[in-house]
Design goal:
Elements (H helix, E strand, L loop, with lengths): L2 E5 L8 E4 L2 E11 L9 E8 L5 E7 L3 E5 L2 E10 L3 E6 L5 E5 L4 H4 L9 E6 L2 E6 L3 E8 L13 E6 L4 E5 L7 E5 L5 E4 L1
Antiparallel strand pairs: 1-6, 2-3, 2-6, 3-4, 4-5, 7-8, 7-10, 8-9, 10-11, 12-13, 12-15, 13-14, 15-16
């Protein structure tokens, strides 16, 4: 991995840095301007470990330094998963990458074979992590039938999707229908 030095004051959301020898991405950034004269500006940063998925919160001064990891963002297609690995393909070069299934439990709830428009962070031909689109279309494989009695309130029911994810859907949604799901909130958005 290739490193350059960057100050905390120069970091942006999406920057990738090395912390304790492991790659992390900046997922949240707040700048706290001091009220006292002579006090340093604080940068409240949230980093996500690209290997373990764990979040780290840090309050740093602007001159604190990090090793930057130079990453390429590539558009990937999800091919399939086996017992140990999730397999992806670069849509331009057709190179294939893998990530351990144990590191992707949340992401796999939204991935179906052949899904495209996934962003991969790649360095030295190694896939560090994937970022899902904000919404995905998934098919319902199991949900209770529609209730026939009229109701003024909007009722919901649980629906199991093709990936195993369970979301609450409006009562009128039936088995076999594709729906749009928000990948951050895990909530029903619309019919797909």
């Amino acid at each position: 991995m290739e490193f350059n030095i960057i100050k905390a004051s120069e970091l942006k959301i999406g920057s990738t840095v090395s912390i304790n020898g492991q790659p992390h991405i900046v997922t949240n950034l707040e700048v706290k301007t001091p009220s006292a004269r002579g006090a340093a500006t604080l940068y409240k940063l949230r980093f996500k470990n690209l290997i373990t998925g764990q979040n780290i919160n840090n309050s740093l001064e602007g001159d604190d330094k990090f090793d930057v990891i130079e990453c390429e963002r590539k558009t990937l297609q999800f091919l399939y998963k086996d017992n140990d690995f999730a397999n992806f393909m670069d849509m331009e070069s057709y190179l294939q990458f893998t990530l351990p299934v144990k590191d992707m439990e949340e992401e796999l709830l939204f991935l179906v074979d052949g899904m495209e428009n996934i962003t991969g962070l790649v360095t030295e031909e190694k896939l560090l992590s994937v970022q899902l689109p904000s919404t995905v279309s998934l098919k319902i494989v199991d949900c209770p039938p529609e209730m026939r009695s009229a109701s003024a309130s909007a009722r919901t029911k649980p629906a199991t999707l093709e990936t195993g994810l369970v979301v609450q859907v409006p009562d009128y949604i039936a088995n076999g229908i594709s729906i749009i799901v928000n990948t951050e909130t895990k909530q029903f958005v619309s019919r797909g």
